[in-house]
Specification:
This protein is an alpha/beta fold. The chain has helices at 24-38, 53-63, 79-88, 108-121, 137-152, and strands at 13-18, 43-48, 69-73, 91-94, 103-104, 126-130, 156-160. The strands form two sheets. Strands 2-1-3-4-5 form a five-stranded parallel beta sheet, sandwiched between helices. Strands 6-7 form a two-stranded parallel sheet. The model is unreliable at 150-162 (pLDDT under 50). Pfam families: Peripla_BP_1 (PF00532).
Length: 162
Amino acid sequence: METQAFQRQNTGIIAMVATDASNPFFLEIFQGAQHAASTQGYTVALVDARESAIKSREVLDKIVPHADGLLLAASRMDSGEIHKVAREIPTVLMSREVQGIPSVMVDNYDGTAKAVVHLVDQGCHSITYIAGPNKSWADATRWRLPLRVGWRRQALFLFLEA
């Protein structure tokens, strides 16, 4: 049974709310989403949440009534808020996992492992990692592996907060 929240007029719009719309990673995703959406008669509207959970909620309150679906990219909102939004509109998360909500993920753990092993194999003895924004779920996944791989491979890591 379809919930009342999903019984809405078809707008032909899929909203994409990104934590930082100027990030080249999100721009590429936006372009791919727009291409795929256009083949189905939809358009994607990109909105910048400026790395803020508060701004994300404000933006969502304004755009959700005018969209048929939502791509929520690396949201800084807490899981409860994301669940609340997903009850209002069909939602797919990007670069963030929340139980019970579909997501598309980058394998940060494996990517970090491969990058560290490559650098150590090239003779690096010191690797500096400049951390992503505060409360970034994806950044937190990148922090886990370098120390394990680096210490096992005798590399020294310096972590800096952005």
